[in-house]
Amino acid sequence: MSNIKGKLIAVIGDEDTVIGFLMSGSGELNKSRQPNYFIYDKNTSLAELEEAIRGFINRDDIAVLLIVQYVADMVRHVIDNHAKITPAILEIPSKEHAYDPSKDFILKRAQRMFSADDFK
């Protein structure tokens, strides 16, 4: 497992969610001046969103990628093909959209690893 000390948390989501994380002090720029956040809005194209998530997935300075679940649904094909340990992709709710555990990437992956008999 790689050393995650000094790695960043990245955020993809609506403006309110991303600004909330930035106000907590999580905003950073890497050596190439790339931010660790991406704001999705109604004018964002699917190609821009896919580029943002692939960019974060391929950065070696990102340990965790937080993505608002309704935005994750738009790029589910990219998320479902993510096979590396880091960054871990965690889906989070937004102010306007509730969290649905049946769609969660990590939860679905964990369910495939275990059966109901494993918990008896």
TrEMBL record:
MF term (GO), any: hydrolase activity
UniProt keyword list: Hydrogen ion transport, Hydrolase, Ion transport, Transport
What domain of life is recorded for the organism?
A: Eukaryota
Q: Tell me the Gene3D superfamilies matching this sequence.
A: ATPase, V1 complex, subunit F (3.40.50.10580)
Q: Which GO terms describe its cellular component?
A: proton-transporting V-type ATPase, V1 domain
Q: Into which family does the record put it? A: Belongs to the V-ATPase F subunit family.
The protein's job, in short, is: Subunit of the V1 complex of vacuolar(H+)-ATPase (V-ATPase), a multisubunit enzyme composed of a peripheral complex (V1) that hydrolyzes ATP and a membrane integral complex (V0) that translocates protons. V-ATPase is responsible for acidifying and maintaining the pH of intracellular compartments.
Q: Which NCBIfam families match?
A: V_ATP_synt_F (TIGR01101)
Q: Report quaternary structure and partners.
A: V-ATPase is a heteromultimeric enzyme made up of two complexes: the ATP-hydrolytic V1 complex and the proton translocation V0 complex.
* Name this protein carries in UniProt: V-type proton ATPase subunit F
